[in-house]
Amino acid sequence: MSPFVLWLSRLSAFASMPAVWGIFFAGAVIYLIAGWRVRLLALIVQFFFIGILYAHLFADRPEIALLKLIVGWLVCGALYLSARMREEAIPQERRFSWAADVPFRALTLAVLGFSAYIASQRYILPFVSADLAVACFLLGALALLFIGTEEDTVVVGVGILNLLAALDLFYSSQDPGLLVTGFLVVVNLLVGLAISYLTVIEVAE
Predict the structure, then answer these.
(1) Which residues does 116 contact at the CB level (< 8 Å), separation at least 6?
(2) Residue 154 to residues 72, 122, 141: CA-CA distances in angstroms?
(3) Can you name the residues that pair with 33 across neighbouring β-strands?
(4) Cα dihedral angle (199, 200, 202, 205), rounded to 10 degrees?
(5) CA-CA distance, 87 to 109, in Å (whole number)?
(6) Are the CB atoms for 136 and 169 separated by under 8 Å?
(7) Dihedral, CA of residue 148, residue 153, residue 154 and residue 156, to nearest 10
């Protein structure tokens, strides 16, 4: 077992709930800040926290959690290349700026985050631990925000990735089979490539 896999599995043993809220706060950064560099860094951090949850879920096979983490970072790499191309085409884009209507976004984020937490306590998901249930609901709430209120192709794509992560955590808790795990890994890669392609096409047009 590689040292990084061993460290990730040990970290997941006591950091599951902090990782859940780390996922939410990383998503909040993506939603509230418009600079693509900050958003990309937040997405990398979010995938790291999701990897901790996968390591907790696949405690007997931590290499699967590492694979999912690497795939997430590969998607971030593809988004970085497309974002650089967009920056070259739109040089006036600032490196850091708040998103439009920040007070409304912050209020919506707080309401949906609180609602997702309450829903995770009231509606018990079968065969899902308490921390993973909160993560599924919070990722679903973030996906709803990104897909429903954003016009940026990259952020909408991040919403789809968050939704896939929520479904992956839920399904893996029911039946952590290798076939479905591999299928979801391929789907995440294809979604990341599709987001990058659409971003580049948007710049070309």
Answers:
(1) 134, 137, 138, 140, 141
(2) 14, 33, 17
(3) 98
(4) 180
(5) 27
(6) yes
(7) 20
By C-alpha distance, which of 201, 196, 203 is closest to 80?
Answer: 196
Is this structure's pTM higher than 0.85?
yes
Is the CB of residue 142 less than 8 Å from the CB of residue 130? no
**CA quadruple 96, 71, 190, 87: dihedral, nearest 10:** 20
DSSP string across 152-196: -HHHHHHHHHHHHHHHHHHHHHH---HHHHHHHHHHHHHHHHHHH
| Predicted pLDDT at 82 | 86
- Name residue 18's amino acid: P
Least Cα distance to 191 among 161, 150, 159 occurs for 161
What CA–CA distance (Å, rounded) separates 85 from 174? 41
CA 155, CA 3: separation in Å to the nearest integer?
33
How is residue 147 annotated by DSSP? H
Q: Which residue has the tokens 């308490």?
A: 130
Q: What is the pLDDT of residues 12-24, one digit of tens each?
A: 555 678 888 899 9
Asked if 109 and 31 touch (Cβ cutoff 8 Å), the reply is yes
